[in-house]
Specification:
- By secondary structure, the chain is mainly α.
- The chain has 2 helices and no strands.
Length: 52
């Protein structure tokens, strides 16, 4: 029983959060995010030199 109740809590949170979402704001933030390519894990280049 407790496990079922615990599973309902995040479901309710995400349902409520989705109801408050503003798709125009989301799309505006997505546009601002840019198209930069992500650095590999650790921020090192292919040859092992620091990219940053």
């Amino acid at each position: 029983m407790a496990e079922k109740l615990a599973a309902l809590r995040p479901e309710r949170y995400f349902r409520d959060r989705a109801g408050r979402a503003d798709s125009a704001d989301f799309l505006a933030n997505l546009e601002k995010a840019g198209t930069d390519i992500a650095l590999p894990a650790g921020g090192f280049g292919v040859d092992g030199e620091d990219v940053v």
